[in-house]
Amino acid sequence: MNKLNKITIIGVGLIGGSFAKGLKQAGLVKEIMGFGQNTTNLQKAIELDVVDSFTTDIAEAVQDSDLVFLAVPLGAMKTVLENMKPYLSKNTIITDGGSAKSSVILSAQEVFGELPEHFVPGHPIAGKEKSGVTAADEQLYVDHRVILTPTAATSQASLEIVQGLWSALGANVEIMNPQQHDEIFAATSHLPHLLAFSLVDMLNEHEELGDVFQYTAGGFRDFTRIASSDAVMWRDIAVYNSEAIVKWLKNYGLALEELTKLVEEKDSDALYTLFKDAKQARDKHIVN
Ligand SMILES: NC(=O)c1ccc[n+]([C@@H]2O[C@H](COP(=O)([O-])OP(=O)(O)OC[C@H]3O[C@@H](n4cnc5c(N)ncnc54)[C@H](O)[C@@H]3O)[C@@H](O)[C@H]2O)c1
Ligand SMILES: O=C(O)C(=O)C[C@]1(C(=O)O)C=C[C@@H](O)C=C1
What we know:
Keywords: Oxidoreductase. InterPro entries: 6-PGluconate_DH-like_C_sf, NAD(P)-bd_dom_sf, PDH_C, PDH_N, Preph/Arog_dehydrog, Prephen_DH. The protein has 288 residues and is an alpha/beta fold. The chain has eleven helices and nine strands. It has helices at 14-26, 39-47, 58-62, 77-84, 102-112, 156-168, 178-205, 218-224, 231-240, 242-264, 268-285; strands at 4-10, 29-35, 53-55, 67-70, 93-96, 119-120, 122-124, 145-148, 172-175. Strands 3-2-1-4-5-6 form a six-stranded parallel β-sheet. It has a three-stranded mixed β-sheet with strand order 7-8-9, with helices on one face. Helix 5 links the parallel strand 5 and strand 6 (119-120). The two termini are 35 Å apart. The structure holds nicotinamide-adenine-dinucleotide and prephenic acid.
């Protein structure tokens, strides 16, 4: 694909920083500019060679940019869109990496009145429990899915450019509609994160257990790694994908009630069947 002149990263943390680093390595952009509120973080991004330049002035950030990548928590997306709107060029592509898609699309609709033709909502299905620019990694997206949820207004040309950039980072791009996206990731990503946070918090609050965490081992570590994820990011996901998440929390509540009953009744046949089916499903679909 043709080299772009300028890409702007709004929010130079794990996701924005990894996107920038990967593109720099692929040599697909002449200049990558970071925008944020915290100059210490942006200075760090320069030191780590994640971006070429930075600014805290939104006008300077988006002017003459070929593509703006929003990588801020979901709760900041609308404000950022509002603030950049007066300075955007007609042809600037806007894309994002937010973990829920309907809320970002709604924000864009509210800010621009109608959905822009150069708006390509997206979500890389890759990440880690560490956040911030120091966690940025140019390999983060290699062999990971990136879901794009173009709107009816999204132009084919903009979609292809965004697709091309993710492919250059080694990602496998898939197109989905935003509602389906939000439902699927409520079940497979948002639910497990909320369960992990809730489990750790519950044990922490039960003082009668004493210093229970010193007795945890591999199982607890595997189940709760994601409870070390950023609290702002996950607060926003819970709020901005609330409807789908509540549905899956309720389904899980029913499953837990059923499991509690089986354990109470010491129903070994039913427990065995449940564990065997779950093991088979996981072993079939997930490697390690
Ligand atoms: N962490 C993951 O595993 C993961 C994976 C996929 C998608 N996402 C999504 O990507 C987005 C970014 O997540 P992250 O993990 O990179 O977070 P992060 O905390 O590492 O980075 C976010 C950056 O945005 C900055 N920021 C916050 N509000 C801002 C504002 N109003 N204006 C400018 N900058 C602002 C922060 O200072 C920080 O530098 C979120 O929407 C998240 O849902 C995260
Ligand atoms: O591996 C992790 O630590 C992640 O949290 C990544 C993960 C997930 O797999 O659920 C989390 C949120 C994202 O929106 C996408 C990916």
